[in-house]
Amino acid sequence: MKKSVFLFLFMSVIFIGCNTSAPQHDFIQEYGGTIIRNEKTPLKAMYSIRIPSQLTKNQINNIAVQLKNENLDKQNVFIEYLLPDMVLNNGAWATSHYNPTLEIKILGLTKEEEQKVKNEIVKEEVNGDVIGKWYNSMQYIEHTVLIYKEQGNLKVKLKFKSGSESVKDLKYKKVGTNSKYTYRNDFGEYYILTPNGQLSLYDNDGLITKLKKI
Hints:
- This protein has 214 residues and is of the alpha+beta class.
- It has four helices and 15 strands.
């Protein structure tokens, strides 16, 4: 009788141990990411993940599989990836959606493509004083920004990944400790430059994006 009870308890321990799933590897943490939005309904889960820099397609796949395994009761799992300068609900650098099968899309530039665009502005020479050079990673319109003074006139040059460029006249205004640069446009857009060199793009509704200093 004692042997039967012991055998029963031993087998129960083995059964429980075999049915306890090991914790998933946290690829989000490994890649330096942070979940900034996590919303769920009975049928789907939606995530927004802040990443420190561009990921490879394989890294995106690892995160997607991890979150899908954490939501096996959901038919659809939608994941978007935002770079540090991107604003939530205003585009994404990449997506990995289970709808219901996995589809990965890189919407922005890869690290190599971004560096190629930046190299063009680094080599740029102007006949005047350069105030600063930045990179705007907004989805579909990635470009560099060069603010400079030429013959006493403030200007901004935008150079896009396609090779096209645009030059506009700027007006300067001091706002507290910051510098405000406005230019003619139909959307109320303007730049704010802080004393530490952070350039941000705004419109009448508020912050659009923060730019990376080059």
